[in-house]
Design a protein that fits this description.
Elements lengths: L3 E8 L3 H13 L6 E4 L41 H6 L3 E3 L4 E5 L4 E4 L4 E9 L3 E3 L15 E3 L3 H13 L4 E5 L3 H12 L3 E6 L11 H13 L3 E4 L3 E6 L5 E6 L4 E3 L2 E4 L3 E3 L10 E2 L2 E3 L11 E3 L4 E5 L4 E4 L3 H20 L11 E6 L2 E7 L4 E7 L8 E8 L2 E8 L3 H13 L6 H7 L1 H5 L2
Parallel strand pairs: 1-2, 1-6, 2-3, 6-19, 8-15, 9-10, 9-15, 10-11, 18-20
Antiparallel strand pairs: 4-5, 5-6, 7-16, 12-13, 13-14, 17-18, 20-21, 22-23, 23-26, 24-25, 25-26
Length: 434
């Protein structure tokens, strides 16, 4: 097959790719210079919608409604937008070989793509139960959620198994958001995870106690401290029951697994420097190879605020790192300089009637304030993290936009902390006066 040549190629078609395309257009990329190569069949979209609005039984989010860049309040980039801007979308195309030395990519269909500048935006892939050798993990109706075709399969199963039993494996983002979605779809839901409380990478025991209590109030059965050890299939090959490591059996018409993800960097092994499980970059997302950049989930980058290097799996960083890399590419071409990437970690979630935001670093001692009674009509509470006399991180459940901006400012400014008792007493008032 004849090879195709582009000045710029983005490999990967997720959130980062879409935001990078928008920045390329802002920077004045010429028609036919940029291509996005994606194994997905649709133009880049806001991935968080899949575990939230996409699963609703009524008024569900559907494409083209959540193509990027609506997640940050920007223009929606429909497939037609790329055509109008002269950006080539190469969809349903999986790259199976990357040769950075010869600046070429090869697809599963043996097509060759040449580039001058490459942006790696391959994102992550889910960890699967088969990876852990769990018996029966190949049963039908065991679902993972990463891409829109995964979401479509799950939505179809939810409709087909109406009012059935669902087991959610994992107590992180996916576990919490999909347990809520399944409950809203009138399923009997059990959520199982091995940790002593949900969302342990962020939540303290006090914070988690609220969410576990709230989910129980909504009818979700929470099983902590154990894992799925095997799956029993029915005659049709569909999952019927789940055996837990503690010996209990849980009925399940649907199983949804959310036990983590890993960055997709195998194509580039041995060709770029790696660090902390990702591709090592500088503050402009340049890799160790000239004219190769890495953004989003795959990039391990200098975290200027904290003086270390980190790899961040979150949509906010995916958007911002994409914009930074494209700005750096054009600045380099023009002999200009841009500011180093100065990222403030940000995470958020929505489920049931709840909505929280977190900014900063969850290190040091914690102070919890506000109403965290899961049985109350309108709970609202927050947490500060204090280290070396400074407030390093802030979390707020059910905040207004103004209040969320206030806790964002606290995490950014890192003000001196009063005593923990005073901070607990002031609560949200401390943030609003910074």
């Amino acid at each position: 097959m004849a090879e195709k040549c582009f000045k710029y190629v983005i490999i990967g078609g997720g959130v980062s790719a879409g935001y990078a395309a928008r920045e390329f257009e802002k920077q004045g990329v010429n028609p036919n210079e940029l291509a996005i190569i994606s194994k997905e069949a649709v133009a880049p979209y806001e991935r968080p919608a899949l575990s939230k609005g996409y699963m609703l039984p009524e008024g569900a989010a559907r494409l083209p409604g959540f193509h990027v860049c609506v997640g940050s309040g920007g223009e929606r980039l429909s497939p037609e937008w790329y055509t109008e801007k002269g950006i080539t979308l190469i969809l349903s195309t999986e790259i199976v070989k990357a040769d950075l030395a010869s600046k070429s990519l090869t697809s599963a269909a043996c097509e060759t793509f040449k580039y001058e500048v490459l942006i790696i935006a391959t994102g992550s892939t889910v960890l699967r139960l088969e990876d852990f050798g769990i018996e029966g993990a190949d049963a039908k109706n065991i679902f993972y959620l990463r891409e829109i075709h995964d979401a479509d399969k799950l939505v179809e199963a939810i409709k087909n198994k109406k009012n059935g039993n669902a087991l959610v494996v994992g107590g992180g983002y996916i576990g919490l958001e999909l347990s809520a979605a399944l409950r809203i779809n009138n399923y009997d839901v059990s959520m199982v995870y091995p940790e002593p409380w949900c969302m342990p990478r962020l939540f303290t025991a006090d914070m988690a106690a609220f969410y576990e209590g709230y989910y129980k109030k909504k009818g979700v059965n929470i099983v902590k401290g154990t894992v799925a050890a095997g799956f029993v299939k029915g005659d049709s090959g569909e999952v019927k029951e789940v055996k837990l490591k503690n010996g209990n059996m849980v009925p399940a018409d649907i199983v949804v697994v959310g036990v983590g993800a890993k960055p997709l960097i195998n194509l580039f092994k041995g060709q770029v420097e790696e660090e902390k499980g990702g591709i090592k970059t500088d503050v402009f997302f340049k890799t160790s190879v000239d004219n190769v950049y890495a953004i989003g989930d795959v990039a391990t980058f200098p975290m200027k605020m904290y003086g270390d290097v980190r790899r961040v799996e979150h949509v906010d960083h995916s958007r911002k790192s994409a914009e930074q890399a494209v700005k750096a590419i054009f600045a380099s071409k023009q002999g200009k300089e841009i500011e180093a990437y100065h990222y403030l970690p940000y995470f958020y979630s929505r489920s049931f009637d709840l909505s929280w935001q977190f900014f900063g670093d969850n290190v040091g001692e914690t102070v919890v304030f506000g109403n965290r009674d899961p049985t109350s009509e309108k709970p609202k509470f927050g947490t500060y993290w204090v280290k070396d006399g400074k407030v390093m991180g802030a979390f707020l459940e059910s905040g207004t936009p103004e209040e969320n901006q206030a806790i964002c400012k606290v995490a950014k400014v890192q003000p001196p902390a009063p005593s923990l008792e005073s901070l607990a007493s002031e609560g949200l008032g401390f943030a609003t006066k910074i």
